[in-house]
Amino acid sequence: MNVKPDFSKHRNHAETAPAFLSVWGMKAYYGESYIVQDISFNVHEGEILALLGRNGAGKTTTLRAIARMDTPQVNHGEIWLDHQPLHNMKSHEASAAGIGLVPEDRCIIPGLTVEENLQLAQIAPPIGWSLDRLYELFPRLKERRRQEGVTLSGGEQQMLAVARALARDIKVLLLDEPYEGLAPVIVDEIEKTLRIIKEQGITTILVEQNAVRALELADRCIILDTGGIAFDGTASEVLENESLRAEYLAI
Ligand SMILES: Nc1ncnc2c1ncn2[C@@H]1O[C@H](COP(=O)(O)OP(=O)(O)OP(=O)(O)O)[C@@H](O)[C@H]1O
């Protein structure tokens, strides 16, 4: 008999803990396609949450919904950030409220230097870290500040994308596959930076295909499976649970 493991006992965190970022009953669609299917979860202030799951599980869609991008359409549920109702906001308002989305394609602006990319992020309030503070965190960006952003290496572009998010006054960093296509030594460097960002009190949601690396960094983990939450618990619970990893993460 093939008995499917039951991880549902882990699903109750969203109902019990006080939240900094809270997603409740969120349903997200691309046109007629029902992608994120009534999910609820909490993120606590200062923690790193790994949002994991197979290809197509709905991770990027969830990040985009929280950031209030034009797509997907969220037609049910609530999203609260530090007592502010994100579900009533457009993306620029969510950004002003403290959401910093770093998309998978990094979106470095062509024709602008590293420094101009950072300055552009600070053209309107709320302004976050100063250029000096950003360059202290990312010395490589300081070395290359006069270089056109799109000519940086993949790792450097990822650093620039994260720095650009921090250049605004954010409360939550949403990172979509920051390790994608990067050599392990560069992943080490970015991971180190994310630990420093955490020490500065910023809350992070990390979507990553490299589940082991993400779990080593994260405090908590949510696993999505076909648009629903299959697991909500600590990162170490996932690392220690072989059947859970095999079932949803293929690791
Ligand atoms: N713009 C879109 N229009 C229609 N369907 C979309 C769109 N973007 C994503 N989808 C669909 O939504 C589902 C979830 O996609 P999503 O990108 O959120 O998954 P994911 O978990 O981030 O996957 P991956 O790890 O492969 O990036 C997929 O079936 C995908 O084909």
From TrEMBL:
<keyword id="KW-0029">Amino-acid transport</keyword>
<protein>
    <submittedName>
        <fullName>ABC transporter</fullName>
    </submittedName>
</protein>
<dbReference type="InterPro" id="IPR017871">
    <property type="entry name" value="ABC_transporter-like_CS"/>
</dbReference>
<dbReference type="GO" id="GO:0015807">
    <property type="term" value="P:L-amino acid transport"/>
</dbReference>
<dbReference type="Pfam" id="PF00005">
    <property type="entry name" value="ABC_tran"/>
</dbReference>
<dbReference type="GO" id="GO:0016887">
    <property type="term" value="F:ATP hydrolysis activity"/>
</dbReference>
<dbReference type="GO" id="GO:0005524">
    <property type="term" value="F:ATP binding"/>
</dbReference>
<dbReference type="InterPro" id="IPR052156">
    <property type="entry name" value="BCAA_Transport_ATP-bd_LivF"/>
</dbReference>
<dbReference type="InterPro" id="IPR003593">
    <property type="entry name" value="AAA+_ATPase"/>
</dbReference>
<keyword id="KW-0547">Nucleotide-binding</keyword>
<dbReference type="GO" id="GO:0015658">
    <property type="term" value="F:branched-chain amino acid transmembrane transporter activity"/>
</dbReference>
<dbReference type="InterPro" id="IPR003439">
    <property type="entry name" value="ABC_transporter-like_ATP-bd"/>
</dbReference>
<dbReference type="InterPro" id="IPR027417">
    <property type="entry name" value="P-loop_NTPase"/>
</dbReference>
<keyword id="KW-0813">Transport</keyword>
<feature type="domain" description="ABC transporter">
    <location>
        <begin position="21"/>
        <end position="251"/>
    </location>
</feature>
<comment type="similarity">
    <text>Belongs to the ABC transporter superfamily.</text>
</comment>
<keyword id="KW-0067">ATP-binding</keyword>
